[in-house]
Every structure is written in structure tokens, then in C-alpha cells.
Design goal:
By secondary structure, this protein is an alpha+beta fold. It contains 5 helices and 12 strands. It folds into 2 domains: 163 residues, Double Stranded RNA Binding Domain (2-Layer Sandwich); 91 residues, FlgT, C-terminal domain (Thrombin, subunit H, Beta Barrel), CATH 2.40.10.410. Strands 1, 2, 3, 4, 5 and 6 form a 6-stranded mixed β-sheet that branches. A hairpin with a 6-residue loop joins strand 5 and strand 6. Helix 2 packs across helix 4. It is flat, with a radius of gyration of 23 Å. The chain starts with a helix and ends with a strand.
């Protein structure tokens, strides 16, 4: 009797787990399908930043200014149709207009000077701004850290299409603050915004970097399944020119957003895909090297 009850309970738990797993897979497939249906040059609505944790007294952050900085960084990719910043009220108004519309007809002017409804909302957050001191006897070392994240959301279903976060830290001697902690934070926040733009552009535009080129000319790129890249996808390869002051984060060469892409120097075709990387082969003439930019070719 006891064994029979145990068996029934195990069976019940297994059924519950199976249902949850199936539901998760359905949501994952739905989100993937929605992401794949995004246009080649999407329109984005960037909500004002949310500050989700207490920041350092030296840096409070301006939600609207941060959103404008992210919009400008995304605009630098020159791949989006339109990007506007929106406050919570405008997001709510726009979502209602989209839900109430029929066959894409809008009776009212869209908020934020949008020419058309956005293909996705971007919800950015300033997660952490802080410093930790470490006594090294001869000096005091301060590690300043800024963490921010963003989620890309379908305006109609509110399904999360993509989410990521970036963390940037920098060590300074306590006597070497170069104008004060506020200046250090502002510098790190600017880098974090640029790096977040890199991640978002990689997802929406499928633009990345060449991570490595093997001796047999196999090319490894910084885009994978989370960017909806699949075997058979083709990319053009570009040498890039950058201004150091506009570099998109410390790891930009491996994360992938170029301000100035030169003419295509090669074409590659994806062979295998992992979550954050893919293996490809060069098709036809041309060559690739680490740090080159790659751009997706629409079939």
C-alpha cells in the first residue's frame, strides 16, 4: 500500500514536471518565432531607464538621459529604421493603441513621434553603481562597478525576445580619482551603455565580430543561437575603422558593433551554432581576421 502511494506521488510529480517543461518549450519556441519575424531594420521604443537598486551618493543617474544615451549608441549602428525614447505613460498609451488597432490602422498619432508602431520595446535598467575599498597597506585600492541590463519585449504579447546585462569595473587608487568618484562613474556608465547597445544590436541586426580564424580558414563569430543564427546563414565580413574615444566597451572587438564598417572583404556561411558563437566557412574569394565585423545577409 505504501509503495503504491509513493508510486502515485512520483507519477503525479512527473506529470507536473512534464507539463511545466512542455509549457516552457512552447514559450521558448514562441519567443524564438517572434524574434525571427523581426524586420531587417526594426523600429525600437526605448523606455526610460529604471534604477532598481540604491546607487552611490556620488552618482544618482538620470533615467531620461540614460535612455537618450542608449538610443544614440544604437543609432550609431545605422541599422535601425527608427529609435525613440518613451516614458511609462507613453509605453502604456502605445500598447493600448496597438491592442485596439485593426489591420494596422491608428486613429491617433503615435507617442514619441513614432512613424509606425515599434517592433520591440527595450526596457533598460541601472542595476548597480558602487565602490569597494581594499586596504593594501601602502595604499587603498577602490574598485568602482557599474552594472546595467536590458530586455527586448514584444509590444503585443509582452514576450521577452532577448535579455542581457553588462558589468564594468575599474580599479583606482583612492588618491587617484581623476576629478572625483562621480567622473569615474560617469565614464563607466558611458562604457556600459555602449556595451549594452552592442549586445542589443547584435540581437536585432545580427551584427557581430570574428572571434578567431583557424589555420584551415574556419571562422568563428560572436553570434549564436540566442541571436537566432542558424546553420546556412550567410554573413559579409568587413574590416573596421574605429575612433578610440567611441569604442563600444572594452571587449568591443569580440562583442561586435562597428561605427565604421568598410566595404565587404569576404562572405561566410555558418556551419555549426552554439548559444553565443558559431563556426563558419569562407565562401568564394576573400579572407577574414580576428576583430573583423560580420553582417547578416537576408536570404
Amino acid at each position: 500500500m505504501e509503495n503504491e502511494i509513493r508510486h502515485k506521488n512520483m507519477h503525479r510529480h512527473y506529470q507536473s514536471f512534464s507539463i511545466l517543461l512542455a509549457a516552457s518549450l512552447i514559450l521558448l519556441v514562441a519567443a524564438s518565432a517572434q524574434a525571427q519575424s523581426l524586420p531587417e531594420s526594426p523600429t525600437l521604443g526605448v523606455r526610460y531607464f529604471r534604477v532598481t537598486s540604491a546607487t552611490d551618493a556620488e552618482y544618482r543617474g538620470d533615467a531620461k538621459a540614460l535612455a537618450s544615451s542608449l538610443r544614440i549608441s544604437l543609432d550609431n549602428s545605422k541599422g535601425f529604421k527608427q529609435i525613440v525614447t518613451l516614458d511609462d505613460e507613453q509605453i502604456e498609451q502605445l500598447t493600448k493603441l496597438i491592442a485596439d488597432s485593426k489591420k494596422g490602422v491608428y486613429n491617433k498619432q503615435l507617442p514619441g513621434n513614432l512613424a509606425e508602431p515599434p517592433d520591440a520595446y527595450v526596457f533598460p535598467e541601472l542595476l548597480r553603481v558602487g565602490a569597494v575599498e581594499r586596504d593594501l597597506f601602502s595604499r587603498i585600492e577602490v574598485t568602482y562597478t557599474v552594472e546595467m541590463g536590458a530586455a527586448a519585449v514584444n509590444p503585443t504579447t509582452r514576450a521577452i525576445l532577448f535579455s542581457d546585462k553588462v558589468t564594468i569595473s575599474e580599479k583606482r587608487n583612492k588618491t587617484d580619482t581623476r576629478g572625483g568618484a562621480k567622473n569615474v562613474y560617469e565614464d563607466l556608465v558611458a562604457k556600459a551603455v555602449d556595451r549594452l547597445a552592442v549586445r542589443l544590436a547584435a540581437f536585432f541586426l545580427k551584427r557581430g565580430r570574428v572571434l578567431r580564424v583557424a589555420e584551415d580558414q574556419t571562422v568563428y563569430i560572436s553570434l549564436g543561437s540566442r541571436h537566432n543564427v542558424k546553420a546556412g546563414d550567410r554573413f559579409t565580413v568587413h574590416k573596421t575603422e574605429r575612433e578610440g574615444s567611441q569604442a563600444a566597451g572594452d571587449n568591443a572587438e569580440e562583442e561586435g558593433l562597428a561605427e565604421f564598417d568598410l566595404d565587404a572583404k569576404a562572405t561566410i556561411e555558418v556551419l555549426e551554432v552554439r548559444e553565443n558563437a558559431a563556426k563558419a566557412k569562407i565562401t568564394g574569394q576573400g579572407a577574414a581576421q580576428k576583430g573583423d565585423a560580420v553582417r547578416w545577409i537576408k536570404p
